[in-house]
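Both lines are quoted verbatim for reference:

——
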Amino acid sequence: MSVDTPLRTAPARAVRKAAGRRRPLRGLWARILIALLVVVEVYPLLWMFLTSVKSNNDYLDHSTWSLPTHWEWGNYAEAWTTGHIGLYLRNSLLAVVPSLALVLLMGAAAGFALQIMVWKGRSLTLLVFLAGVMVPSQMILLPLFTVYFRTGLSGTLWPLILTYTGTGLPLTVFMMATYYKSVPRELFEAATIDGAGILRMFWTISLPMVRNAILTVGLVQFFFIWNDLLVALTFTNSQDLRTVQVGLLNFTGDFGATQYGPLFAAICLNVFGTLAIYLFLNQKVMKGLTGGAVKG
């Protein structure tokens, strides 16, 4: 036995030594991959920022990868005044905030009714909402434009608010119904025994339980609505109603010429603003994404 034991353990020791040598290599490749991903994500943002502080001559006469010869911080002021980026941001907020509030409120209420309440035909109703996800937005623009024109809503931001609300509800209802599966039904049964009504259960029990899910869905819908170009381009018929995406598409400086420095400055204000919102709410979003994955 004393002779056989070293012979038996020698292969195991060799395997452990080989595995120990492979671990640093795996860690090195992982670090290289992470570094490449960081470069891919950060470098476009850095290039966009450097372009925003270039003069128009730097942009046209030098390579697009070159550093600015003079840091033109006045591009941001020009983007705010001459480029009217402040007006476009205000219009975007006036269109996004009411739309997002309506989508979240009605989506959470519909998800509660479809998942928690028991009534005949709720499965078919959920399928009807899912069918709305499959409808391309391009198909509904012309009928909606006709309806808004005949009802006198053209020339206001109401077409944007109504369209964003209608197109955002199907996905929101489906996601909220999924998240409500993780809420224990015993809570609602106990609340029913205590005499709580439907509205009280919805406001005081269900909403606090799915607040991370509401935040996640709200952030997803916010980016969908904020980055929309097609709907805003179709229903905004004047400069005073342009959202930030339409404003960037038609961004011009003095005498109608494109000023690339102020243009990229306006893009930076848009991109870094939304990026800051996402980074601030990142942890809540991760909790919301995993909240509906497992039924509690």
About this structure: The chain has 14 helices and no strands.
